[in-house]
What does this fold into?
Amino acid sequence: MDRQREKAILEAVLFTMGESVEVERLGAVIEEDKKTTRELLKEMKAEYEERACGVTLMELEDSFQMCTKAEMYEYLIKIAKTPRKYVMTDTLLETLSIVAYKQPITRAEIEKIRGVSCDHAVNRLVEFGLIAEVGRMDAPGRPLLFGTTEEFLRSFGVKSLEELPELSAVQMEEFKLQAEQEASVQLNI
It folds into this structure.
């Protein structure tokens, strides 16, 4: 099969699926190995950018998804219903950060880090599709474990968790002091 035909097949699959598809599965469709399939997908992404078209390929972990370019959003809302926007409070962002950096993690572990109850924050993040249940801990009561989702990667524009910024020891110490101050203020209320 020639490369143009393989790209056409990949494009059709990604367009039709409407969600991310693992490189390995895409390779199986065109009967190519992962390396060759990834090369084809990267070529397709470059071609989309070169042609200045309205779609692009987004890489998420070991998957690809066809999506609309961000600069086309204003035109989409003229014809489609405005997508639901999420209000991300400081509490939600803090909880999401903890999950992103410590996953898989239980509610109790999140609460221990934050020093306050996190039920509402975890429930909202699950509702927004930014985190999900990823299993159960092998411990008494078998508490749920939470981790980030592909929607988290999409929303924050990163391909994988490895692209998240690393926190320095100084930043960690500052965060710890802020958390301790917040906890002491809440105890005085």
Summary: The longest strand covers residues 55-60. Residues 169-188 form the longest helix (20 residues). The beta strands are 21-22, 55-60, 63-68, 131-136, 144-148. The mean pLDDT is 85.
